[in-house]
Each structure stands twice: as C-alpha cells, then as structure tokens.
Design goal:
binds iron/sulfur cluster; four-stranded parallel beta sheet; alpha/beta; globular; about 425 residues
Amino acid sequence: MPVTDVLYPTRPMDCFSKMKELRRKVAWDTWNSRENGRPLALSGEVGATAILGAFDAEILPSMPTGREMRDLDWVVKLNEAAETKGYGRDCCATLRIALGAHFLGTFGLIPGKEERLKPDVVFSLALCQGQMKAHQSYADHMGIPTTHIELPYSHPRPAELTDYFLAQSHDAIEHLEKVFGRPCDDEKLIEGVRNEWRSRLAMARIAEAQKAVPAPLKLKNFISFVVFEWRGWNHRAEVADFYEMAQAEVEERVREGIAGFGGEKVRLLHEGVLPWFSNQVLRYPEKYGGTYVASWTHFTNSGAFYQDEEGHWRVPSPPWERGLELKDRDSALRCLADLYLPNLMNNFVMERPDHRLGLARDWNVDGAVYALDRGCIGMATVLLESVILFKDAGIPVINYEMCCTNPADFDEGYYQTSIDAFMDRWR
Ligand code: SF4
C-alpha cells in the first residue's frame, strides 16, 4: 500500500461544530412547526425559498438523504418500495428514495414520536424533469397542492426569461396566500432574498478558495456545507451568517497554508453526484496523494457563478452593489431572477462541458473522475460530452458507473481498481 507523505499542515474546521448545531436547530424548527403555529412546505433543492420565508413557513426537505441513507438495508427497501409502485431506475434516484419513504410510511417522521409531519403544499424551484415529476408524485400521495417555478434549461439569453420568472413567482405567492391562509410579508421576502444571495455568494467564495495549493478543504467537507441549500434553508439569516463565517475561516486557512488534505500532490475533479451511501469514494485516491478539490456539480449547486468570454469562472456581485434596489415584492423577485437565471450554471445544459473545462483550468486540476449516475437525469446530461472535451484538452480523465442512491448499482471494487490504475501516472 503506498504511503502518503505529509506535505502541508492540516487542522479541523472550527465552524463544523457551529454547522452541526445549526443543522439541529433548523431541523427542530421544522419538527416543531405545528406547535409553533407555522405553515409547512415540502421543498428544498435549488432555492427561491425566500418566498416561503415570507410566510414564516418551515420547510420539510423533499430529499431525505441524511436519515434515510444511513442504513444500507433500508436504502435497498426504499428503492424496492418505489420500484414496486412503478418508479423504476429511469426516475430520479434521490427522489425515488423519498418516494420509497412516503410509501413505507417513514417520510416526515418526527424523532421520538410516532407522528408524521404533513406539509400544506409542495413548493419548488424546478430545474430538472426528475424533480418536477417526483414533486408531483409526493403531492398526489399526500393529497396536497403543488406550486412550482420553472427554470427553463439551456436558454441562451437568460435576461429574456425574467418576465416569465416574475409571472410565475407572483402566481406562486398568490397561490401560497390561499394555501397558507395568511398574507405574504414583503419585508420578510426582501430579507430572505438578500440572505439567499449572501448564502450563495459565500459558498461561491469558499469554492474559489479551493483554487489555492494546497486546497483548504477536502471536497467532502465542502459538500457538507451544501446541506443548507439542499434543505431549502439558504434564505434564513442564521444560515447566511454561518456561510459568511465559514468563508472567513476558509480564507484564513488559505492565508496560513492549511490544507484539507496534508498529502496533496495530485488535484482531482470529481464530477457528477456521489454515491451517497459510501464514505470511501472521495477518500480513496488519498493513498496516492490524490485529493478531490473541485466539482462542477457541487460548486454550481451551492454557489453563484457565470463563465466569462475567456472561459473563466466569475462570481457575480450582489444586486445591491449594482444599483438594483430591494424595496418591494416585485424588486425582490427581480433580484431572485437575477440570482437564478444568469448565475445558476445548471440552467445552461449545452454549455456544461465548457464550464467543466474552465473549472478544471481555473482550479489547476491534474485529472478528472466522472461519476456516470444512472439515476440522475438532471446532472448526468452531457457528462460524456464533457469527458470527450477533457480528453481533447489533454486532461487525464476516467469514469465509473453508479447510482447515487442504489448500492446495487455501484461496484466499489471496480471504482477502486480504476483509481489504482488512474493514479499510477503520477507516481
Ligand atoms: S438533478 Fe438529479 S438528483 Fe436532482 S432532481 Fe434532477 S434527477 Fe433528481
């Protein structure tokens, strides 16, 4: 077994304990939503949850990937339960787990109680067809209404979509006023939009800090930050404050030369969703001095970026620094459109290979590993085209197949022997 040299100092992140505390707090806020007289939405993923914050609504995350993924036997049962009802392997795998939990009666269970939370509505900023279909199925299963704001894929001129986004957002607010039986508080909407911007900008700056050699974080640690975005909590002030605190700590690590992985010799990009049930995938290359430092999937899921004409990744400035005022409902929704139309790279499907190449170059990546996820229609689109582009650009690249939520579709031994062979070129 190769032995990794220690090349850089490391130390744990101070803010992780704060993150755990905050995760517990927002989870308990959700579980206590009914006692606290709050409306409840099934939501999360992507964003625009400032709209829910304007109603003081709590959010039950539609992706139960934490609790439900801890026991592998249970994960297999969830997959089977969804499959029995006709949700096969062509459906979104992550949300199939959620459907399995709905069918087996564990979705929304309040810890320590026999009670399940029943949301008032399903709300989403919809970015892929798998998400849209799954949310419709949740709503049918629970007998509750849905409201969606669609982010159209691959529109070359996002500014032209602003009116469409605004019309959908105003309609969604009107619908939620009826469902929740209370008015939208525009002051809270403005504050939530500001916080969504702050959260995503801080995550973009944390991602940018990963350009440093050594990278201040392992990719695994970066991904653990993304949880607030996946859970739909980016609009909360305490979450935005946390992200800014984490950004300051990560930037301090860069200044002091603190590494996420002290043996960093080979900088790797991991592309695609990860097998959520395996802890070893990101760690495995470390025995050869390899460390994953970047990922288009996770950087774009959590941050705000656009690609400039030279192919470099740029972080937008917030709207209030560009003279865009947040003063009422319409201007707040415009600022949401300004965040999610031009600065969410996921929207530009055909440009993804170029984004990934720009990322590999800007972040000084030596090689790339692509996870070809059978269960994620949204992120897997044009992955193979990206692999070809990397080969043409002379960047070493391999891929492996898996399904992010189905252990039966992942051969970990094959992944490890592929990495053994791949890393050989840097020995
Ligand atoms: S992007 Fe992938 S994991 Fe997310 S909703 Fe779409 S298919 Fe599911």
